[in-house]
Please model this.
Amino acid sequence: MEHTVIHDEKVGRFEVFESGQMGYLQYEERGNVIDLLHTIVPKQLEGEGVGSALVQAALNYARSANLKVIPTCPFVKTYIERHPEYKNLVA
Model:
């Protein structure tokens, strides 16, 4: 299933809205670094690929903006371990 991810820079989040629920990845951007803090996916959306879509959008944003990534969120760390094409982004 494909998910539409919205980047809300005002609140520092990547967001997915589905079935009346919102999943998001919170971040802080400082200089040339983006700290991916935590990923929240409502129980109703678990197992649908929402978390992976959020992380992929955040990592692609970091790559396009020439930012290094601090994977504070354990889900983000695991995603990067499973997708080595993003390892070069880690600060």
